[in-house]
Design brief:
Blueprint (H helix, E strand, L loop, with lengths): L6 H6 L5 H28 L11 H18 L1 H30 L3 H6 L4 H19 L5 H30 L1 E2 L2 E2 L1 H22 L3
Antiparallel strand pairs: 1-2
Amino acid sequence: EGVKPWAFLESMKMLADKNFAVFIAITFVVSTELEFFYILTAPFLQSDEIGVSPANLPAVMTIAQFAEIFVMAFMLSWALKRYGMRKTLAIGVIAWPLRYVIFAIGGPAWLVIASLALHGFCYVFFFVAAFIYVDKVAPPDIRASAQSMIAIIALGFGRFVGSLFAGRIQDVFTTEAGTNWTGVFLVPCALTMLCAVAFLLFFRE
């Protein structure tokens, strides 16, 4: 209705709410760890530890894509109705360290490949649910600006920082002998575990 022309600044004021600030902080950290999956999963699957051939890699990676579609279409709405927003987000954030700890263990190969299906819960139950949460808590007149804010934090700045961070961590654990994938994936595992604990302790719907 044009009553708040500086709607973006109004959306920043939502950070004054402790629960929303905790949610935004966790969203940012988790979004940085998303790049470990997007950037490093393919070379990890082709490593000697897992042994997926380049010819089979696209088919294997579609496991994550199909899981995302399935969870989006059939499970998110059900989970929100049955468990509510906080528990749905909690499931999503807990799925992250679970996936990365399997990657860090690095075997057996079938378990690593099967764990790609966790991407459905990681992405949909956290990021998609996060946009629904923002839509729910933002005042109607600044809702679009609040959505833009979470998009910039999660899918913009967070992923940009994450791409640099993931590349740096890979460099740290790579020598002439190859990449220590256990060391690489222990980093996002630890960070997402901290996010899960912080979410369960400090976030209230």
